[in-house]
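tool=predict chain=A
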Amino acid sequence: MCKTILIVEDEMINALFLKHLIQLSGYKCCGIVTRGDDAIKKALELNPDLILMDIFLSDNIDGIQASEYIHKQKFIPIIFITASSDKETYERAQSVKYNAFLRKPFNNEELTTQIVQTLKIS
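tool=predict ok
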């Protein structure tokens, strides 16, 4: 069975690149959303095997808040992907159980390795 991944990314060019990368790795993208509230709805509706979650999104619910809400409902592994390198964002992310924290720009191989490792243990 093919593992499914939900992409939560407010920059569509980045989302399409992530989709391409995960498809090359043999996984299925089950959706792309740009807003935190849509991430919550889609995650609960689709129950993906993994979520690639940007932290800064295009609405008032960021990726950390969306992850907190999703984990209250069900456990879905999350890999945070962010351009932020500030300590406050990293510490906020620590309050949520996540499987990896990658900073943009990331190495494609690094992301692929994190996806494979996360899906193996989930």
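The beta strands are 4-8, 28-33, 50-54, 78-82, 100-103. The first strand starts at residue 4 and ends at 8.
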